[in-house]
Amino acid sequence: MKLRKLMFVLPNLFTVTSIFCGFYAITLCAGEAGPVQLYQAALAIFFAMFFDGFDGRVARLTKTQSDFGVQLDSLADVVSFGAAPALLVYKWALAPLGFAGLFISFAFAACGALRLARFNVLAARNPHGGGGRFFVGLPIPLAAGMLVSVIISHHVASRGEPLHESAVVPVAVAVVGLALLMVSTVRYRTFKDTRPSRKSAGVFTLMVVGGVAIATQYHPAWLLVACCGAYLALGLVESAVQVRTHLAARKVAAGSTAVAAVIDDEDDDEEAEDGTGPGNDGPAFL
């Protein structure tokens, strides 16, 4: 019985460790943080992603899922993937923009919190909704992962050089885009239903070939950015295809409705000419 109670603590330890990594990243960003401290903060958030990814799996393996764990995980995500990345990107790139940079950083954290709140509400309405094939909106760990991968890759590729001033505005635009994707209805795959097949093997092979090409042509550090960017692009493309298919289906349905209406009108006209339409008892001359 005691062992069973201890097993409930195990997944929560992973979640608390994720909070510690996020808090450590915040302390590294505080004050006059240099490129080394910001790089270490990005690594801390990256490790937080690792622990966050395993707490749910540990809970499922040990059959210790609980509502307490769900709420704790959301609070951990706000700290580790909302507040910590927002402060990190502000110190790394957006501080020269003044209040605009501060607001953009805040918007990232706020949109992440809104995304988590929406997820909790949907999960409460549908207890089995968390096991679906798609996320609604970009998950906050993946949004933070995109920022962290750029910071880590830039530090390694530039050998610790600060970010150039010309890149500040593109970074600000990217942060705004990630914030909007979190609160959007764009669907992103969970890959929970992925099974070994020819299709999955082909996709994996394509990813490996693309990764080798990026690593050899540019710098191996940018491989992480490419993987995160590919996931972002996949969600956008699939959502665009879905919207197009939905619009085409609505157009076909509207066309079928219009044809049916025309046929009904023609039938009514024929009935009126025969004197057998609604309200007619027979030919008028009788």
From TrEMBL:
<feature type="transmembrane region" description="Helical">
    <location>
        <begin position="99"/>
        <end position="122"/>
    </location>
</feature>
<keyword id="KW-1208">Phospholipid metabolism</keyword>
<dbReference type="InterPro" id="IPR043130">
    <property type="entry name" value="CDP-OH_PTrfase_TM_dom"/>
</dbReference>
<feature type="transmembrane region" description="Helical">
    <location>
        <begin position="7"/>
        <end position="26"/>
    </location>
</feature>
<dbReference type="GO" id="GO:0008654">
    <property type="term" value="P:phospholipid biosynthetic process"/>
</dbReference>
<keyword id="KW-1133">Transmembrane helix</keyword>
<dbReference type="InterPro" id="IPR000462">
    <property type="entry name" value="CDP-OH_P_trans"/>
</dbReference>
<feature type="transmembrane region" description="Helical">
    <location>
        <begin position="222"/>
        <end position="241"/>
    </location>
</feature>
<dbReference type="GO" id="GO:0012505">
    <property type="term" value="C:endomembrane system"/>
</dbReference>
<dbReference type="Pfam" id="PF01066">
    <property type="entry name" value="CDP-OH_P_transf"/>
</dbReference>
<keyword id="KW-0808">Transferase</keyword>
<keyword id="KW-0812">Transmembrane</keyword>
<keyword id="KW-0444">Lipid biosynthesis</keyword>
<feature type="transmembrane region" description="Helical">
    <location>
        <begin position="200"/>
        <end position="216"/>
    </location>
</feature>
<keyword id="KW-0472">Membrane</keyword>
<dbReference type="GO" id="GO:0003882">
    <property type="term" value="F:CDP-diacylglycerol-serine O-phosphatidyltransferase activity"/>
</dbReference>
<protein>
    <recommendedName>
        <fullName>CDP-diacylglycerol--serine O-phosphatidyltransferase</fullName>
        <ecNumber>2.7.8.8</ecNumber>
    </recommendedName>
</protein>
<feature type="transmembrane region" description="Helical">
    <location>
        <begin position="168"/>
        <end position="188"/>
    </location>
</feature>
<dbReference type="InterPro" id="IPR004533">
    <property type="entry name" value="CDP-diaglyc--ser_O-PTrfase"/>
</dbReference>
<dbReference type="InterPro" id="IPR050324">
    <property type="entry name" value="CDP-alcohol_PTase-I"/>
</dbReference>
<feature type="compositionally biased region" description="Acidic residues">
    <location>
        <begin position="264"/>
        <end position="274"/>
    </location>
</feature>
<dbReference type="GO" id="GO:0016020">
    <property type="term" value="C:membrane"/>
</dbReference>
<comment type="similarity">
    <text>Belongs to the CDP-alcohol phosphatidyltransferase class-I family.</text>
</comment>
<feature type="region of interest" description="Disordered">
    <location>
        <begin position="264"/>
        <end position="286"/>
    </location>
</feature>
<keyword id="KW-0594">Phospholipid biosynthesis</keyword>
<keyword id="KW-0443">Lipid metabolism</keyword>
<dbReference type="InterPro" id="IPR048254">
    <property type="entry name" value="CDP_ALCOHOL_P_TRANSF_CS"/>
</dbReference>
<feature type="transmembrane region" description="Helical">
    <location>
        <begin position="134"/>
        <end position="156"/>
    </location>
</feature>
